Amino acid sequence: MIIDKKFNFNYDISEPRQKNNIVLFYLSTREKIKNDYITFPEAFSKNLVRVEEVNDKGVVRYLKVTNISDQKLLILDSEQIIGNGIRQNRVVNSTTLIPEFSNVILRVSCCEKNRWSPAVTNELNLSDSLYFSKGRINNFTDIYNQRNTNQFTIWDDISDKLKEFDSKSFTGSIEDIYKKRKNNVEEIVSAFNPGPNDIGVAIATGNCLVSLDIFLSNEVFKIYLPKLIRSVALDSFKKTGYTSFVKTKDVHKLLRLIEESEKKIDKPNIGTLGQQIRFNSGLVVGSCLKYEDKMIHFSGFLKDKVNIPQYKSNVA
């Protein structure tokens, strides 16, 4: 199947909403698309998915995922699978769509450097946060250039983040940062409520756009918005009374940079549905999963921060 590499973005973009230094722009559409998928968090909560090591010894780069529901299972890139039911916490490399009643070998990376233990309990869950935004950018860049993440870069990114937040983690887990800053982060999450036509969000910190995520439907977007906010808040959290001066026009500029970037199509993993359109340039990186000519999930990131003052005063 040939897929048009043009994204042809056609969304209404809201005025900015701000809480502390986190700024959101909602992307909306009046097109109603039926959602036939079950998300990873929904499947976990309903015991409709099974996640396990690929064999008794385990392989760092892979997990076996079984969809035991009668719906296609949507797993987002940067989901963090955590708990003692697997040998170490993992982060999902790419957004994946799994057919009904089937199993696949899911590509993942280690996000808990200092643990490789037998499964001692059945405790297994998803983190409330996606992997932090700087890590997502580096992973997408590595996958575009070499078809896989750089495990040493991931460990270095997590180590730097632990130092930045003065957090200690015996196993080197990014989850420990979220637990330490949970109250601050959840205050930000509760401040944002999407409307019924919103299906995507561009997020900025201070005066710097960071990420853009778009989903097939409003229902799926509402499930993942809190996780997206947490992932950015973990990367850059400050309490401030200053107003960001990122504008809607800046989101349009980001969309143009993405459209103008170099693109390529990845072959789907064995047993999965859809195709990944990956894009990369000196300024942006990301990917889009398309299935049956529909955009299932789009992730885009601005690589470099603009050299402007971090905040503009309310009275300036």
What does this structure look like?
With 316 residues, this protein is of the alpha+beta class. The chain has one domain (12-302). Helices cover 25% and strands 29% of the residues. It has helices at residues 40-45, 133-146, 151-164, 175-189, 218-235, 248-260, and strands spanning 12-13, 17-19, 22-28, 37-39, 49-52, 62-67, 72-75, 80-82, 90-92, 96-98, 102-110, 125-126, 198-205, 208-215, 262-266, 275-280, 284-291, 294-302. The strands form three sheets. Strands 1, 2, 3, 13, 14, 15, 16, 17 and 18 form a nine-stranded antiparallel sheet that branches. A six-stranded antiparallel sheet has the order 5-6-11-9-8-12. A hairpin with a 2-residue loop joins strand 13 and strand 14 (208-215). The longest helix is centred in the C-terminal third of the chain and has 18 residues, at 218-235. It is globular and about 50 Å long. It starts with 11 loop residues before the first strand and ends in a 14-residue tail after the last strand. Mean pLDDT is 89; it is low at 306-316.
